[in-house]
Amino acid sequence: MNTPFRFEVLQVDGTARLGRLTTAHGPVETPAFMPVGTQGTVKGLTPEQLVHAGASIILGNTYHLALRPGDTLIADLGGLHRFMNWHGPILTDSGGFQVYSLAPSRTIDDQGVVFRSHIDGARVELTPERAVAIQENLGSDIAMCLDECPPFGTAREYLRQAVQRTIRWAERCRAAHRRSDQALFAIVQGGTDLDLRQECSEALVRLDFPGYALGGFSVGETPQQMAAALEVCASFLPADKPRYLMGVGRPSDILRAVAAGIDMFDCVLPTRNGRNAQAFTWSGTVRLRNAVHRRDPGPLESDCPCYTCRHFSRAYLHHLFMADEMLGPTLVSLHNVSMYCRLMTEIRRAISAGRFAAFQAACLARWETWL
Amino acid sequence: MNTPFRFEVLQVDGTARLGRLTTAHGPVETPAFMPVGTQGTVKGLTPEQLVHAGASIILGNTYHLALRPGDTLIADLGGLHRFMNWHGPILTDSGGFQVYSLAPSRTIDDQGVVFRSHIDGARVELTPERAVAIQENLGSDIAMCLDECPPFGTAREYLRQAVQRTIRWAERCRAAHRRSDQALFAIVQGGTDLDLRQECSEALVRLDFPGYALGGFSVGETPQQMAAALEVCASFLPADKPRYLMGVGRPSDILRAVAAGIDMFDCVLPTRNGRNAQAFTWSGTVRLRNAVHRRDPGPLESDCPCYTCRHFSRAYLHHLFMADEMLGPTLVSLHNVSMYCRLMTEIRRAISAGRFAAFQAACLARWETWL
Lengths: 371, 371
Fold this sequence. Notes:
By secondary structure, chain A is an alpha/beta fold.
């Protein structure tokens, strides 16, 4: 069986790209946003609601799923798609980032990472081979190589070591990878050091992966630092392969990254902020607990086609949050995911029409202070 | 404008009745179950999901809604149906029961009840006239008279006073009631004292309400005590008016009450227990946190047509609860409401076919120990 994975660039507009991923579970128009389904569920939303919101691909977290319920259990039950009843494409991360950010008492050496589970304290080892095996058990359409992601501000000497380790681990992941219905992407590290980014990119490109991610962004640098670095980093990557900026970000970050030639994004903001009563709209963020919404009969966003905006007032959403009702987080998460997906649709439309720069400028002029 | 409210008994089978309520927001086939939407939302479910689960009428709580967001605010926004986007019939309770069970430092006299809000400690007065005004503001299809509901085991002398007060308050509610698109039901009290129940029923029937509720059940008596009392109590009420048993109950309670001639029910069990990982099925209750479900690929209930059972395994539901994911409470609440609505459908079908006694016996033989 040949791998079904394909990527085509359909059109370019400056350095922004309109493209299409083809995966074992269907196509994804790019630039694309992936809602985050950390524990086998995009928090608070049914798969039906996700489809309604316009999501075409979602992300699952290897770290969380391997610890609970376990990747072999998910494999025994037919894989992650079936387990969570999501029939579109899924990308899984490698688990590395969560080990560094969530797990207690982790130690890293060339072999891999050893850490304690944040759930029960059990000792767990994550190696490049194990990261691939877990993701093959989950059965995602796109898997990620295990990488080392040092914190923002790490000294250059350690950054260099982390880059070398990330390259060696990518080789091992590639050697271990078996599933022909799953594409394995490599992750470029190097922090804000563009020489290291270039070195890492060139080494990974020589290994010829079907896609490349940029890791270690949005971990402390300013949006301006990130945007400047992204343009350079994207130029180190082959034009005919998809580029995925991990864990980013706000709508304004996404616009700048698309301008730099990025094709894929994931971020917890639409759901995490949604659960905390913050809505993203085209006119700005809206904090629904604010008393100004108490009697407001209008929807969150008047021209939004989502279920929440078509059926509920700001006054009702305000009430749900004040009364601590579960439906509030669900309805605002639904709106936010829908808003992000509409943003991507508008981005693709603008690239297609050759007016992305104007679209971006118009959005950023409106959003700069808040999104 | 004439009141659109009507009730027809379409068929009887023993003392069980098949009927139809006609309300300003559409018909309700009886016996009917009303999911509880305490704070303007049936917890965790969208109105769309409620319709899918088969709910035809829901209940709203006057006490909660009057305190937050306030009944005048809801009226200003077009009423409760529009506020919560539920376009079917709504019954609101009078608030009395919640004042007695939730509010701190309440004092009752003939004028009404004075209590402290459980939200902000504000002093609130609930009189019969105010209970009616609140429900008229909410715009429910069926409103309830304010009653006094003494705790189970109250001495007969106080029970008698409470019954007399309930009758006087029903008169005042009737006199205060204005909305012609809303039916006002009276509530029969009297605890387990059947003489008092009869006295209360006769007095209320003389006032000629379009429907009658039995209050003060399921507050401490055994299911057997309740079933025996219900049969007698139902006989005190006119055959051509709907009978509503408030706050009841488990599926087995509902079956016994239907046998006694009850037409309407509400209960928090399907949603409250659903949030706590307990599912109701035709083969028994299922505790989804139990480790036995960890690897179970089967649905909660194999022949259940609900969204949850059609799309998710017990293993997945178990995982959602172990991982403390919001989707678990939502999916199991959806199943439970759906199961209750299917129970009512089967009850109506059995009455229609003249085989309710056999249906009830078969269910109770299977359920006695647990439902």
